[in-house]
Amino acid sequence: MLKNHASDPLLAHIARAQTLIEALPYIRQFRGATVVIKYGGAAMVEHELETLVIQDIALMAMIGMKPVVVHGGGPEITALLKRLGKQATFIDGHRVTDEETLDVAEMVLAGKINSDIVMDLNRVGAKAIGLSGKDMGLLTARKKYHQNKDGSHHDIGFVGEVSSVQPEAIRILQQHDVIPVISPLGVDEHGQGYNINADTAAAAIAGALQADKFVLLTDVQGVLRERNDPNSLIGSLNRQEVEALIADGTIAGGMIPKVRACTSAIDAGCRKTHILDGRIPHSLLLELFTTSGIGTQIVP
Length: 300
Prior knowledge:
This protein is α/β, with parallel strands linked by helices. The protein has a single domain, classed as Carbamate kinase. Helix content is 41%, strand content 24%. It starts with 9 loop residues before the first helix and ends with a strand.
């Protein structure tokens, strides 16, 4: 019967139905699962990709998963600083953050970006609320110093690292099927605010929640066996294999902090982590709801 419809749209509909059937066991498995998503890179600044990611997150919530979104915003902070006539300064990838830069970071992260993501999720039918790491003591921070190659330390201003996570605010929202959207800002015991790397903040939150999954959306495919060879993507690694690949130089450069974020989440109690290329349309759904996946998963 299908052969008689070779040029018929029916075949396309059947293919869609088969895709849904492939996803069925994963939908059943992950119902009620907490998934922390670090949202950044091209997926956050290119409108078409942004729309698809928002749809993916909303769908996850609607089928019973419990997504938690932690977003970045580095390019937007740099752009606003430039418009204000202030030059952004970086040391080995760390933004030097004086008081004015911290104010701009808070305006961009807790203000525009956070509210835009919340609005977009609400518009497609999901329930979402914006949070800052400062809310209800969610992220307690301490000052981070940049370590130079000679072992000395360099003061880079109001850049923080997570010292503790109090996830009660997230759990309250999850009980009511509301998606928390979190900006990576923290405060220390004296009330001083800090800008925190979004990967680090998301990993700490995933660990504190004992999340089922931590997903890093980024602008790379994942871990490659051979640099610049997309066909050498490593689909799965365990904790020990990660350390071996760092030692032999396979994992190098900007990929090291990403896998370190994943391993720190695992060490704190997260069950499984994923590094995904957010430039691929519907990358979240392809990784979570298909047999093969598209990125690199890192497991204990």
